[in-house]
Amino acid sequence: MSAEKGNLGAAGELAIRALIDRAPLASSLAAAFKAEGFRLALVGGPVRDAILGRLGNDLDFTTNAHPHQTKKILKSWADNTWDTGILFGTVAGKRGDTTVEVTTYRTEKYEEDSRKPDVEFGETIEGDLSRRDFTVNAMALELTSPEPEFIDPFGGINDLRDRVLRTPTSAEQSFSDDPLRMMRAARFASQLGFEINSDVLDAMKSMSGRISIISAERVRDEFTKLLMSNQPRVGITILVDTGLADLVLPEIPKLRLEIDEHHHHKDVYEHSITVLEQAIAQEDRLGGPNLVIRLAALLHDIGKPKTRNLIEGGGVSFHHHEVVGARLSKSRMKALRFDNETIDAVETLVALHLRFHGYGDGEWTDSAVRRYVRDAGELLTHLHVLTRADCTTRNAKKAERLARIYDSLEERIAKLAEEEELSKIRPDLDGAQVMSLLQIKPSADVGKALDFLMELRMEHGPLGEERATQELMQWWKARRHP
Questions:
Q1: Exposed/middle/buried for 421, CB within 10 Å: 0-12, 13-18, 19+?
Q2: I want to staple 380 with a disulfide (CB 3.0 to 4.6 A). Which of 208, 349, 365, 376 is the partner?
Q3: DSSP state string for 46-84
Q4: Which residues have C-beta within 8 Å of that of residue 356, sequence separation ≥ 6?
């Protein structure tokens, strides 16, 4: 292996050799390009991850072949291919369990007010690497040389060792070329536990306004990756401290409320981040990392700034902040182009996150428990996780008491579920039976009758067909002859 273009070091050489052993498809793909007279190099994240010992099945390559030539080669090599990114020089393919993206050497930058980058194809791999986001992603492994050649013109291997994020060119130039890189810096800090170089951080602060030219979809995708990382607190704090959050998620920095002179409430921002971390700690209940619960945990109190009122004599109130927060969550997530299913789920959880606090010491009736389950629907376990995570008190006795009370609620839900199939609560009569009994055709009256029967079901539990019929006929008679 040649190290003429980069000081790889013993650990790096072992990692790259492990990469070649673990990804034999990379060698066969390189052979396919070499046979056509082109160069191919593994580049960016996979090189970084190979050195870190965390290589996945998604591999990125760069080549001097133009996109249509790449497409032709990939078609003969991959099981299937797609070219949705061909205008940007990228063609993708999949062979076995490995997905590859091959991009022509390029330079890419955003004009001052454009939301779409201008892409020009380059002549050399060094030029391509100089336009990449960070030095740790500007390393390549040339695979079409007689021996794999490590290329590291900007000292990425040293920055990887030092766990620091720097840009290949000046940070101002890099962020001007693609402002989304500012959010990517925050994401990598969360994902990899890296520090951001002070020059890079200063540029993020001074250029944060440039993020406004990036499409909502790209911002959403980058924020989602950050939020789903192992340490989202790190990245979110960077977004807030640099001013980026003021533009992409302004509800979060607004949570840094001033504490009133009596110190009667905690910092809502810090509370929200802690709730997020405590929800993550319970994600095994949801089958693993879960975007809905993380969004709901982060956003659950964003209604507080708009509902904040000082109480005479000291203290602060946030009446109905869950209602306002649900509306704000929906609005922000729509602006970021989240899908409707995710938006609806987060909105529901934010709206319901205070419901448990009316439970007291377990005084809820069975009817109230049924309504809790009904309103949560398929999100019941999410609501359990969010409600438990929302306890951030440092008072150990209070925390233990709240956990014990919620344990009792979950036990009651389980008991009622066993007795009544709570997840399938329906009126005791269906629409066809209602129309037959009342001798009416499909109409609004059928819906009102079913709503009445559903309320009875929620209040009293299963009634049985006979009693439900009696109650329905009495209700109908009262409606017609009040």
A1: exposed
A2: 376
A3: HHHHHHHT---SEEEEEESS-HHHHHHHHHHHSSEEE-T
A4: 387, 406, 409
Contacts (Cβ under 8 Å, ≥6 apart) of 104: 62, 63, 64, 65, 66, 67, 70, 89, 90, 121, 122
Nearest to 251 by CA among 235, 272, 231, 232: 272
Dist CA 424 CA 421 (whole Å): 6
Specify the DSSP element, H or E, that contains 173: helix 171-177
Pairwise CA distance, residues 354 & 118, whole Å: 48
Query: How many Å apart are CA 402 and CA 384, to the nearest integer?
Result: 12
The domain spans of the chain are 1-162, 166-249, 250-424, 431-480
250-424: CATH topology is Hypothetical protein af1432 (1.10.3210)
216 contacts 335 by C-beta, under 8 angstroms: yes
Which residues are registered as beta bridge partners of 92?
A: 82, 101
Distance CA 76, CA 78 (A): 6
The ranges of the chain with pLDDT < 70 are: 1-12, 14-16, 18-23, 107-119, 257-266, 311-315, 317, 359-362, 419-424, 481-482
Calpha distance 238→235 (Å, rounded): 5
Q: Are 19 and 13 in contact (CB under 8 A)?
A: no
**Residue 163: count of CB within 10 angstroms of its CB:** 13
Report domain 1-162's class.
alpha beta
Contact yes or no for 458/367 (Cβ under 8 A): yes
pLDDT at 112: 60
The string of pLDDT tens digits covering residues 216-253 is 999 999 999 999 999 999 999 999 999 999 999 999 99
The token pair at 284 is 């095994």
Q: Is 180 exposed, middle or buried (0-12, 13-18, 19+ CB in 10 A)?
A: buried
Kindly tell me the burial class for residue 397, based on how many C-beta atoms sit within 10 Å of its own C-beta (0-12, 13-18, 19 or more): exposed
455: CB partners within 8 A, 6+ apart: none
Q: How far apart are CA 85 and CA 411, in angstroms?
A: 52
Q: For residue 350, how many C-alpha atoms fall within 13 Å in the half-sphere facing its CB?
A: 33
Residue 293's pLDDT is what?
A: 98
Q: Are the CB atoms for 142 and 125 separated by under 8 Å?
A: yes
